[in-house]
Amino acid sequence: PAAPAIPTATTPSAPTAQQVLAQAVAKLDAASSYRFNIAATLNYAIENTTVEWKYQGQGAFSAPASYEWTIEGQADVMLRAISVDGKTSCADTRGIPPPGCSLAWGGPSPGSSPYTAIAYIRNVQQVGDLQTKDLDGKPHYYIIFTPSLSKVAALDTVHSAALGTVSVVSGELWIDIATGLPRREKVVIELS
Predict the structure, then answer these.
(1) Pairing relation of β-strands 124-127 and 138-147?
(2) Dist CA 185 CA 171 (whole Å)
(3) What is the tens place of the pLDDT at every residue in 69-114?
(4) Greatest pairwise CA separation for the chain in angstroms
(5) What does each C-alpha distance from 134 to 50, 128, 159 come to in angstroms?
(6) Backbone dihedral angles phi then psi of residue 149, each to the nearest 5 degrees
(7) In terms of Cα–Cα distance, which of 137, 140, 138 is closest to 186?
(8) Residues near 75 by beta carbon (within 8 Å), at least 6 away in sequence
């Protein structure tokens, strides 16, 4: 007689970067609210010297469509945007609303508003391999990505205009393995 078959356990396959990113975006979209911290660096060349300006701030989202953020930087720079149900108000350092106030406004350079940075992970064109990296002493999924600038530009005419001066955007995303939520996003924007 033949020996009885020994059952084997199937090992679930490891997730792909696309799957992890899609699940993180779905969780972000399903959240009733979240807060975020902002750190930005603007590098620009002037008179054969590269000048670096640092910005930092905080923001929040509340469903269904409320965003608010404030970014402060060197030389008393301040950018604030508040959007509730599609009505957006903005203010600069002087408290004056800038022309073209929208969710695309409010970052140190075109294509760098917090809303736009979140739109980049919702509209990805290409992702690298899924990696694991520590962030603040905890393991996180780490994904390098390239957003689809055409899809982000299609959000509205202001995004289209803002991204008209952007030639390349590349991004890095850290996703908490335990919660599946994005913890840190870094984007590098190259202007035309």
Answers:
(1) antiparallel
(2) 7
(3) 998 887 667 788 999 988 999 888 778 888 778 888 888 888 899 9
(4) 89
(5) 31, 18, 33
(6) -65, -35
(7) 140
(8) 53
